[in-house]
Amino acid sequence: MSDDHSILRLKDVHYQWSGPNAFGLTILDFHIKRGETALLLGASGSGKSTFLSLICGTITPHSGKILVDDVDLTTLSNGKRDRFRGDQIGLIFQQFNLLPYASVLDNILLPLRFSPSRKAKVDSPNSTAARLCVALGLPQGILEKQAGTLSVGQQQRVAAARALIGAPPLIIADEPTSALDAATQTVFLELLFNQTSANGSTLLMVSHDARLADQFDRVVQIADIVETTKETV
Amino acid sequence: MILRLAYRSLLARALTVSMTTLAIALSVALFLGVEKVRTGAKASFADTISGTDLIIGARSGSVQLLLYSIFRIGNATNNMTWDSYQDIASRKDVDWIVPISLGDSHRQFRVMGTTNAFFDRYKYRSGKSITLDDGAFMDDLFDAVIGADVAKTLGHEVGDPIIVAHGLASFSEHKDQPFRVSGILAKTGTPVDRTVIVSLKAIEAIHVDWKSGIKIPGESTAADVIRQMDLQPKAITAALVGTKGRLQVFGLQRAINEYASEPLLAILPGVALQELWQIVGIAETALIAVSAMVIVTALIGMMATVFSSLNERRREMAIFRAMGARPRVIFGLLILESTLMSAVGAVLGLGLLYVGLFIAQPIVDSAFGLWLPIEAPTLRELWILAGVVIASVIVSIVPALRAYRMSLADGMMVKI
Fold first, then answer.
1. In Å, how far is A99's CA from the nearest CA of chain B?
2. Domains, chain A
3. Searching chain A, which residue's CA lies closest to the CA of residue B13?
4. Cβ contacts (< 8 Å) between B332 and chain A: which residues?
5. DSSP secondary structure letter of residue B165
6. Angle B225-B228-B233 (CA atoms, 0-180°, nearest 5)?
7. How far apart are CA B213 and CA B165, in angstroms?
8. Residues B53/B249, Cβ–Cβ less than 8 Å
9. Which of A146, A227, B151, B184 has the smallest number of Cβ neighbours within 10 A?
């Protein structure tokens, strides 16, 4: 059942954590259209991390389908899923995005090392990285700097450049602005939106901050799509 | 790129990484050093005597005879009579024979009585002859030729008088008959360097006033008088023999070992050296085992360092995973790091070895008469270095597997 307009689609997905804090998670139906910017709102403990892990394919659901770019992740082998993630998804974390000991350039080029298809889309990696840095408002000559020496705001922009390089169809940002102050947040989001649409990519951002909502095409409450169950087994 | 990242990552942890590398380097240097000393000692021992077909002495053990006659280690339990010596010397299968008489000392060095034939017949390092650095061989009765180490240690020069002490580490000296240094030998790297060589007759001469190892009180014969006396020795300690042909060696050996009038022993130096190495071999193996254990300890230390770094590097692994790296990339990265550390350690260890050799060479030479050659690494040493690196790869599999599992479980979501 392919849907040409969705970049991401989850159908009847169920995942069960084991261990002392075991809980189950069910997503009946969720999808994002290509080119959309979507904000997923939810407090911590709402199953946000599990949800992202499922989309990125680092965990596999016990049942259901997860389609990224019309490929069902659940049918792929572990190795193929890792490769697929590198090809399709650019990730920005809340914090500590970069390898602190490596140069900014190496950090930005890292995904190309694991994704030949993204590498193929970049003619000249170094100049592409430089161009992205300029577009994201980073100062000249930052590429040679060691990533650990940058400010948090700069680090998040470098992380954005890394997620964007090679134009993966889906950009996932996990609270990328929570470590930034309000003014920087707005600028950062604006730059992110611009570059995402320039790439023709889809942006899925997860946050607990409802104030960001009016900047997105679509806002979804996690609670509306995810059903969590505390198991007492 | 991965290689550069691994290098940068190691650089970022410079302190622990350099400590670990240093430990590996030291252990490698120790192991190679032990190897050098071992092979050096073996070569030095084997080089000590050549060209001599048989060593003859009073019946004891073959290793003992070799040790006291050539290496000046230990003492003869008995002497062989001058009559037997002459009898053997007159045999037609004997090409040449050199008598040796030991038992006296000069300071910490042993005195050996022999004939000037010794300087022609004694060969070392596959056929090299003894040469003089200064002066001449013995001419007068009280002339002494001293080895290079004797001259260097005691500061003797040609013409200096020296007094020989009775026995070894003894306080009773042959003061009445002082010797004169007539020649100083060039360095050989053999026990000859640490020997004072006098004529066989001189050994008799200084014992004229002695009986059963004790000086007869009040008696002192003047040197002039001694010169007039018949100084034919009654006994010698050992003799070096060359046969007319290789084939006669075993016949002569059997004849001497079955010598009727007194119990004698003839040994082939090469065979006795082999026996000696069999005895030393056990200690040798123990030494290698201990230094190998030191390498193992250093490698386990490295494993511990890698283990303890894993927790603080979970974030780093998560980033790799998020970029699409499979867990086996994480595994490979850790193996790569260990390989880099041990490879640098091994090369550094080799460097330390050469620095150590450079410093220790003269010290070891003068203290033990052991010449450690400074040469390019042998194939065997290179294999040892490769072995260390391979062992480090094997050892690092354990923490790498743990990192593999951690990154599989963490995925990209690490809460720190």
1. 6
2. 34-57+77-221 (3.40.50.300)
3. A101
4. none
5. B
6. 105
7. 12
8. yes
9. A227
> Token pair of B233, please?
């020795």
Q: Sheet of A23-33: strands edge to edge?
A: A71-72, A63-68, A6-16, A23-33, A226-230
Per-residue b/e over B155-173, b at no fewer than 16 CB within 10 Å?
Answer: ebebebebebbbeeeeeeb
- B322 vs A56: CB contact, 8 Å cut-off? yes
Q: Do A82 and B2 touch (CB under 8 A)?
A: no
Contact by Cβ (8 Å): B81, B92: no
Interchain CB contact of A193 with B (< 8 Å): no
A196 interfaces chain B, CB cutoff of 8 Å: no
Q: What tokens appear for B333 in the block?
A: 């990265």
Distance (Å) from the alpha carbon of A97 to chain B's nearest alpha carbon:
7
Per-residue pLDDT tens for A142-190?
999 999 899 888 998 999 999 999 989 999 998 888 878 888 888 888 8
Whole-complex ipTM:
0.88
Spatial separation of the C-alpha atoms in residues A102 and A109, rounded to whole Å? 11
Which residues are bridge partners to B253 per DSSP?
Answer: none
For chain A, the helix, strand and coil percentages under 3-state DSSP, each to the nearest 5: 40, 25, 35
Measured in angstroms, the CA of B41 and the nearest CA of chain A are apart by 49
Nearest to B164 by CA among B199, B196, B201, B137: B196
Compute CA distances A124 → A201, B107, B384, whole Å.
20, 81, 44
Could you tell me if A85 lies within 8 Å of chain B, comparing CB atoms? yes
Give the nearest partner residue to B2 out of A49, A86, A113, using CB atoms: A113
- In angstroms, the CA B150 to CA B245 distance is 36
Q: How far, in Å, CA of B309 to CA of A156, rounded? A: 25
Beta-carbon neighbour count of residue B61 at 10 Å? 13
Do residue A114 and residue B1 have CB atoms under 8 angstroms apart?
no
pLDDT digits (tens, 9 = 90+) for A51-104: 888 888 888 888 888 988 888 888 888 888 888 888 999 988 888 789 999 999
Q: Considering just the CA atoms, what is the radius of gyration of chain A in Å?
A: 18
A residues 132-171 lying closer than 8 A (beta carbon) to B: 148, 162
Contact A123, A206 (CB under 8 A): no
Cβ neighbours of A78 in B, within 8 Å: 326
Q: Which of A52, A97, A106 lies at the smallest CB-CB distance from B1?
A: A106
Q: Rounded CA gap, A161 and B259, in Å?
A: 97
The predicted-structure confidence for B227-253, as pLDDT tens digits, reads as follows 878 888 889 999 999 999 888 999 999
Q: What does the alpha-carbon distance between residue A139 and residue A15 come to, in Å, rounded to a whole number?
A: 44
The answer to whether A220 touches A38, Cβ cutoff 8 Å, is yes
Please name the residue that has the structure tokens 């053990």.
B61
Chain A residues in contact with B407 by the CB 8 A cut-off are none
Measured between beta carbons, which residues in chain A are less than 8 angstroms from residue B12?
A: 100-101, 148
Instruction: Check if A179 contacts B (Cβ < 8 Å).
Output: no
Q: Of B398, B391, B407, which Cα lies nearest the Cα of B328? A: B407
